[in-house]
Amino acid sequence: MKKVGFLLICLILMTALYANGEKEAGKIEFSASTGGMSATSPGGKGMAKFAEKVGEYSNGTIEIKVFFDTTLGSPSSMVSGMQQGTVDFGVCGDAYYSSLVPEIQVFELPYMFNSIEEARTSVAGPAGKLISEKLEKKGIHPLTFWEIGFRQLTNSKRPITTPSDLKGLKIRSLPSTFQVKAWENAGAIPVPMDVSELYSSLQQGVVDGQENPLSEIYNQRFYEVQKYLSLTSHVYTPMLFSVGSTTWARLSDEQKGWISKAAKDAQILVYEVNDLGNSEFLAKIKAAGVQVNENPNREEFKKLMVGSQVLFSSQYGDELINLIK
Fold first, then answer.
1. What pLDDT, on the 0 to 100 scale, is given for residue 277?
2. CATH number, domain at 170?
3. pTM greater than 0.85 (yes/no)
4. What is the total count of domains within the chain?
5. Vertex 298: Cα angle to 316 and 319 (nearest 5)
6. Which of 101, 151, 206, 277 has its CA 20 to 30 A from that of 174?
7. What are 29-64's pLDDT values in tens digits?
8. What residues make up the domain containing 201?
């Protein structure tokens, strides 16, 4: 009897070990990059939520390993990595996808949206779907649009109230033809630059200023090397959260459902963080000693910068702008 009992215990242990081995063998691990954003940024918090919900919905059979800041490279290299299958999931500002689908820049044309609600509705609508279809053909499967939010202007030289105050200032811009043109029209000297290079460039005086949402100005610590902030709200920046088409093709329909649901959960969190956090970020930036101009002449900026919409239409037609408006 003792021998039978011992054999039974061994059998139970072996079965448990085999079952656990099967579970581990069936587990899928994916990488996810925040495209240069920190863990405390809205995008970083969204990615952490995405990883958490995927683990929950998949009952632990899918694990998302999140890499913050520039651990997996710059936003540009992240987009290339998703195309090539070396990075599975990634999120970054839309401009970094423009080398694949230039038309995505429509969402970041100056003064395209009058409110955050209008912007969110537009990226989720027909224009966003059309852009997603174009990216599908380039090896990127868009999941959902998150957001960085409305962009504000900082510099180290002087307060900015009207576009005339920009004369002679080197302003880092997004790597986008239309962003560069908008800043040229406003009177600045635009310098396209990856965000991973920006802090050191501001610190060393390579550029005098930059423009980013308040969350990034605070989380990337740009306030440490900038003296002045103007709330111009000149551009809305969505973040496109995507998966490489190679990775997407590996998933079953059920797994795709979990991923899509988790991406939407993360989007809701990102929106909530932005809605609640902007006033807090502004207070912290002020407390750091930055001089804030809360009422620059936005109408003057708009008059000079909306020419980018005309330039966009001349190159890509009016379809996307009409879908938005």
1. 87
2. 3.40.190.170
3. no
4. 1
5. 15
6. 277
7. 999 999 989 998 899 999 999 999 999 999 999 999
8. 2-324
